[in-house]
Amino acid sequence: MTEKLFLENPYETDFTATVLAVKDRGIVLDKTLFYVASGGQPGDLGILTLNSNDNLPVIAANKAENGEDVVHILHESCPLPAAGDIVHGKIEWSARHKHMRMHTCLHLLCASVIGDVTGGSIGTEKSRLDFNIPGDAVDKNELSDKLNALIKEDHPITSFWITEEELAQNPHLVRTMSVSPPSSGGKIRLIQIGTDKNIIDLQPCGGTHVKSTAEIGAVRVSKIENKGRQNRRINIVFEEG
């Protein structure tokens, strides 16, 4: 099973690993910092370098059929390493950090809107969540102000693990209707925004996040779209500059 270093070390960009298997244009490593595409967050891009100094661009990081390994998809022009080879990996940090900021902001959005989440997508410039809510339930300017207030309050973000049984006893923690909480070895990872005495948001998540809300930076609700009788798509963008 690929050890997912990004879960505990989201700010690391470089690592060394051993090739476990080669599958078509993809390779499986014993450990990786490349986030695997899931939960609306894209997989990381970057470079793997062999001891021969050959650079292998990683154009996608996908979940393997067994649900545990990470398959690093290489450009078709790359030479393929062999099982047992040592590689040095480096992720594209600029995109990763924007995904971390956006993903954390979507947790704040989830905490600020009362309604079940039916879908979502994370990008470097724009992200969104879909909610089952009445059409007039949210004002985008008021929601923008609420998100930016939470961001400026600089709440800490931490993670910890519970069992699947513990999650079953606390079903209110699950906000997403379209995606099952990510599980690994019978354990569920929770992301908490805020302190134990002042929890802003607490829910299962396998994504990467920043250390505190202030790191997100200013954001704006750019559009609220009608996607059905009660389905509303709320889009957010960075308020850069």
Structural notes for this entry:
This protein is α+β, with helices and mostly antiparallel strands and 241 residues long. It has two domains: 3-91, Elongation Factor Tu (Ef-tu), domain 3 (Beta Barrel), CATH 2.40.30; 95-238, Threonyl-trna Synthetase, Chain A, domain 2 (Threonyl-tRNA Synthetase, Chain A, domain 2, 2-Layer Sandwich). Helix content is 16%, strand content 40%. It has three helices and 16 strands. It has helices at residues 93-112, 140-152, 164-168; strands at residues 3-4, 14-23, 26-29, 31-32, 46-50, 55-63, 70-74, 86-91, 116-121, 126-132, 157-163, 183-184, 187-195, 198-204, 219-226, 231-238. The strands form four sheets. It has a six-stranded antiparallel beta barrel. It has a four-stranded antiparallel sheet with strand order 9-10-16-15, covered by helices on one side. Strands 11, 12, 13 and 14 form a four-stranded antiparallel sheet that branches. It starts with a strand and ends with a strand. The model has no long low-confidence stretch (mean pLDDT 92).
